[in-house]
Design brief:
About 70% of the residues lie in helices and about 5% in strands. By secondary structure, it is mainly α. The protein has one domain. The longest helix has about 40 residues. The protein is elongated and about 60 Å long.
């Protein structure tokens, strides 16, 4: 599964993201503001070690599970794959190329999710450095909008590459 060069790059990216969460989490106070209400005011707290483990779980597990489940299910010969012009793209002579394209697309989207999760963590680290603790909502909403726009752009490009004969 990870013989693919892009798969190895993705594993390196996940490891770097985990290192970033671990290292930046060590600079946080013993009790971390981890949940924020509208307006950015902190309204939920947890011990730093619990927060760091929680974020490590999400930064590693969400993107990796997306990739692993998708890649694993594509290995099955009878996998149900819903694509535009599926008869064309899943014909035996093109199936390998199609699976490669899907895997690359899932890696791209998972990498975008990984970056967004690290960005959200960075905002929490920044919020915990301020007094009073406050999450900058404009930065969070801006990052969320960038992520959603990138996800939309990715989805359109992903579907577009499966036009008939492209």
């Amino acid at each position: 599964m990870w013989n693919d060069r892009n798969g190895r790059y993705f594993l390196v990216a996940v490891a770097c993201a985990a290192g970033f969460v671990w290292a930046s989490g060590q600079s946080m106070p013993d009790v971390v503001a981890s949940h924020f209400a509208a307006g950015g005011a902190a309204n939920g707290y947890m011990p730093r070690a619990v927060y760091v483990l929680f974020m490590l779980f999400f930064v590693i597990a969400l993107p990796a599970l997306m990739v692993f489940i998708t890649w694993r299910s594509l290995e099955r010969p009878g996998a149900r794959i819903n694509l535009p012009h599926r008869e064309y793209w899943l014909a035996p002579e093109r199936r390998g190329q199609t699976v490669t394209r899907i895997r690359a697309g899932v890696l791209q989207f998972s990498a975008m999710l990984l970056v967004f999760l690290c960005y959200a963590h960075w905002l929490v680290v920044r919020a915990n450095r301020s007094q009073p603790v406050r999450l900058d909502e404009s930065w969070f909403l801006g990052g969320l909008l960038v992520f959603l726009a990138a996800a939309l752009f990715w989805a359109l490009g992903f579907v577009r590459q499966f036009r008939r004969g492209s």
